[in-house]
Amino acid sequence: MIPTDDKAVRRAMALMRLLMRYHRYHVVGLEHVPRTGPCLLVSHHTLATYDGFLLGVAIYDHTGRLGRGLGDDRIFQTPLLGPLARGVGIVPATPQAAETLLAQGELVGVAPGGMWESLRPRNERYTVRWGQRRGFVRLALRTGAPMAMGGR
Prior knowledge:
Elements: H1 6-23, E1 39-42, H2 51-63, E2 68-71, H3 73-77, H4 81-87, E3 91-92, H5 95-103, E4 107-110, H6 114-118, H7 135-143, E5 147-149
Parallel strand pairs: 1-4, 1-5, 2-3, 2-4
C-alpha cells in the first residue's frame, strides 16, 4: 500500500470543506461509488484543479474511503507541491501505479484529458476533450475494476 500523511490529509480535507461550502458544491450519484473494492473514478479536468479534491471529500464523507488520484509528472517536479501531493495520496499517473492501486482495492481517480483538457477555451468549457485517450477503459477491462464516470 502506498502511504499517505494523515496530517496532510486532514488539513487538505478541512480546506476542501470550506471550498465546498463556498462553491455550494454537491455530487449526484455517490450511491454508485462502491464502499469496498476497487473502482476507477473517471472525470473531466478543469483549470480549477481542486475539483478532484472536492469530489474526493464528498466520496470520503459518503463512503469513508479515501480515493487516490493519478497526477501529472509536473506536480511531483514542483517544490513544495510534490511532497504535498504525495502526502495526500496522489501518485504519478502511470498505468502500473493505477493497476497496483486497483489490485489493492483502492478507489483510483483519473482525469484522462489532463492539463490539455483543463486549458480548453471557454467556448468548450462543457465538452470533454479526451480524444483518443482510452487507456482508462483498457485499465478497467484488464483489472476488472468497475468505473464511475462523472462530469458536468
